[in-house]
C-alpha cells in the first residue's frame, strides 16, 4: 500500500516537469511503483527520497519567491 502511494507521488513529480497532467504521469507512476516494489526496501527509500527532495526544492523556491 505504501509502495503504491510512493509510486503515485513519484509519477506526479515526474509529470510536473512538462507542466501538463494526464495519463502520462499515471503511467510513469505505475511503472516507477512497480520497479520500486521489485527493488525491495531500497527502492522505497530511493522513491521516497526523490519525492522528499522535490518537495523540499519546491518549498525552498516558494520561500525565495515570497522573500522570507
Percent range for β-strand residues: under 5%
Tally of alpha and pi helices: 3
**Structural class of the helix and strand makeup?**
mainly alpha
Number of strands: 0
Summarize the structure.
It is built from three helices and no strands. The protein has 68 residues and is mostly helical.
Q: Would you give an account of this structure?
A:
The structure is a single chain. The chain has 68 residues and is mainly α. The chain contains three helices and no strands. Helix 1 (2-15) packs across helix 2 (23-39), helix 1 (2-15) packs across helix 3 and helix 2 crosses helix 3 (41-66). It is flat, with a radius of gyration of 13 Å.
List the helices and strands and how they pair.
Elements: H1 2-15, H2 23-39, H3 41-66
Helix pairs in contact: 1-2, 1-3, 2-3
Characteristic key phrases:
68 residues, mainly alpha, 3 helices
